[in-house]
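Worked Example 4.2. Consider the chain below.
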Amino acid sequence: MDKRCIGPHWAHLYGWPEGADEDEILEYSTQMKPFEYKGQVLLAFEVEEDKDARAGKKKAAKTEEPELVEYELRFDLFQVGELPIS
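Applying the procedure from the previous section yields the following structure tokens:
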């Protein structure tokens, strides 16, 4: 498989239940992952090489936990159905 291209595939989305309290989520997030099924999304990725990019490595000054960032995902949703011909 070409590592620069990940073909279309379905990814399942999970989250905390709608009525979950923020304190409970913080408490349980260290012990378990979100478990309520929220849906699925079709993903595909492709990486293109940048010929003008500078290759190199930098050493991090110190390791830190990544910042938690909330984001909103917006997309168009289409549902296609098939009707019998009568």
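The radius of gyration is 20 Å. Helices lie at 22-28. Compare this with Example 4.1 before moving on.
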